[in-house]
Structure formats: structure tokens, C-alpha cells
Amino acid sequence: MATKKLLSKRSFLELIKKNASERYPDRHPFNQLLYDGKLNQKQIHGWIINWFYYQQIIPLKDGAIIANCPLSDVRRIWISRILNYDGYSEVEGALDGWLRFAESTGLSRKEIISSNYIPGVKIAADSLLNFVKNRSWLEGIATSLSQIFLPSAINKRINALSTHYADFVEPDGMSYFMALSTQARQDSQIALNLVLKYSESYEMQLKAIDAVLYTEDVLWSIFDSIYSVHVVHENTY
Predict the structure, then answer these.
(1) Measured between alpha carbons, how far is 174 from 179 in angstroms, rounded to an integer?
(2) Does any domain span residue 24?
(3) What digits encode the pLDDT tens for the residues 168-190?
């Protein structure tokens, strides 16, 4: 069977965006309730607590990408993502930023860090880490391409939180999302440039697309678990 011809970068990019946009979890019922102001404080707290588990996976995922990558130029670029999440020197990382946002809603850091996370959230997030560990470094980087759509989602969250949940979300908490929006644009562009540059065959291009779709399935599964526990059954974890 003849090998299919490598897609042009423009066609490859269009295919990534087309496929990924259809499965981005911005359309998930939980997010729609969030945007429409239909969640209560307990449900918002359930989201904040369990999303933190996923966020803790991200720097581990990026570390696995670096460990799998033989190219020093790529490793030097990618290591900044770990610093962005963990922080460095006096610079706050995204993990501390999320905890600060949580505090602005009435949660304590101890509540989040020592929480009983929903099993489905843990299984989904852990599966993404295992995916990256066991695939090529380029597929690992491609898992970050879902960030292409994050700035738009962040704008919706900022609007929803400030409009519908101002009775228990302090304005200072919004600074996390504002910083994340800028960072997501930068990070997604870096990931996109690397994937476009190093996907040197049609087969590799398809694997990159599969990787970003896998990530979006993971994110959707995380929201499924949060929605089931905190909206459908209104339990506490």
C-alpha cells in the first residue's frame, strides 16, 4: 500500500483545528451550566477541587515529554512549561494560582490538597500521563494542542464567574485566569510550531491528531465525573 503524501503545514493545521474543535469540552453540560450561572457554590467547589488533581498531572506530563525527547533544542523549549506550572524564584506558578483562585471562593489550600478526588477524575488524568510516557515525545507535545481553544474558554469563565458567582468569588481570584489566558496562547503556539516542524510523515501527522483528540477525551471524561457526582447526584468528594 502506498504511503500517503505528507500534508502541507496549512492543511495539517486546518485538520488539527477541525478535529479538535469538535471534541473540545467547552460544550460539556457542566461547562454550559457554569457559563449560564446555574451552579451553586458546592458544585463550583467540586469542580475546583477535582480540577486541581488534573492540573498536578500537567508538569509530570511535561517532564515525561522531556525524558522521552532526544533533542536538546526541544527540551530547552519545553522545560519552561514545568516552570510555568510549578513556579520559580518569586514567580507564581499555575498550580499556586489555582489554589489562590480556590481561596477566593472560600476554600482552603488544605481542603484541596488533601481532598478525596473523584476516582473517575483520577483515572482519566492518570491515563493521560501514562499515554505520554508510552508514546513518542512528539505525540506527547501534541497532547498540549487542546490549549489552542483555551483562551476562548477562559474568557467565558471569567465572564461567568464575575457575573453569576460574585457573591462568593472574590475579584482577586480572577487574576489567575487572566494570566492563564496569555500563557495558553504562548504555550499552544510553541506546541503547534514543534508539531508542525517535526511531523515528518503523514503517519506522524495522524498520530499527532490522535494525541490531541485523546487529550480532549480525557478532559471530557473528567467533566463527566464532576458532572455526575456534583450535579446529577450532588454528592461530596
Answers:
(1) 9
(2) yes
(3) 999 888 888 888 888 888 999 99
